[in-house]
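Suppose you are handed a protein chain with no further information: no name, no annotation, nothing but its sequence. What can you learn? This example shows the usual starting point.
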Amino acid sequence: MLSSAPPSGTPRFGANYTPSQGWFHHWLDFDIDAVRTDLDAIAALGLDHIRVFPIWPYFQPNRTLIRPRAVEQLVALADAAAERGLDVNVDGLQGHLSSFDFLPAWTQTWHRRNIFSDPDVVSGQAEYLRTLAAALADRPNFIGMTIGNEINQFSAGPHPDPDRVTQEQAESWLRTVLAACEQGAPGKLHLHAEYDAAWYQDDQPFTPAQAARLGAVTAVHSWVFNGTAQRHGRTGAATRAHAAYMIELSKAWADDPRRPVWLQEVGAPAPLIPAEHAADFTESTIEAALDCQDVWGVTWWCSHDVSRDLADFPELEYSLGLLTNDGAVKPAGAAISRIVEEWRGRTYEPAVRTTAVVVDDAMSRRSECGPGGAVFEAFARLVADGVRPTTVLASRAADTEHLAARGIGEVVLPGDVG
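A reasonable first move is to predict its three-dimensional structure. Written in structure tokens, the prediction is:
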């Protein structure tokens, strides 16, 4: 199986792998047979890839100790996935998962150091990412590395103890760790992924330009609990098209008009999306996303529910799986399986979007792109009226060459959308 596919081919469909036994703590008691059982259930849905999550402090408990056994277990997981026709993307720096932070002791308390700017920490991170990438480089089912899961949440509020950096420092860090992945596994699909604060939060040092210009593809993580579903409801156009909106918003910032975009995380969070409506939300979200050009693929969050035996998760985290904790297919999983079958062998080339909403270039105006903001609401109104909009930066709104390259024939200001 190829590690990647061009956006003009059939889109990729996958799941973020959440182990059914022990959640991500399974690395502490790694059981390859349990992993194989999980992967069998994922493959049975027809999916072609998984995104996996080594826990950073479990793999690198000391700055100069990357546990060989942990790396071997990661490779074993990747090989088990290959046996089931599944490609693998590996998130390196976990980092943050489902409301829990996982940072090694050598960055905290008595050893408190900024994880983005301290030279020793960054050097340790680079060696860790290089090591994981190199261990998998010769595996044909290895897609590549993602730097970490929404690691930008550590860089600003609302995190309770942020490692604050400037935009310039954030970009320098991204370039350094992406280069380490490339050194470990040359030519693979290496990328970084932020949660939506990079697109919507005015003081976030990780920026839309970084997301849309650094790395092999742009990753977007679409969660409607960010105020979208609260404001627009379960069936609102903004809710059903939120993932598509983020994909199209990323295109405003991309230098390459055909840069691939990976919808790397999206899910149906209860109670905003009640369980009985999860399948409908799944279908409408994916349908809207695949009506955007250049989508590399869709990776649903997540494969398995979190076990109720585990304490202290936010309530919604227990029910996001395509499969129950014991492997039974849920309605959202059945919906994904139907979609995969419908798309099998189809050529992917949606129509060009000819109407673009103007986005202010200023980082201090990013909140206009979030729920309730002028750009966000204008886009949602156009969708509700049957328009297929995209976005364009204000600095490019009169650039005829740029507009022509993207097929944009009409540029509208947010305030002009009634």
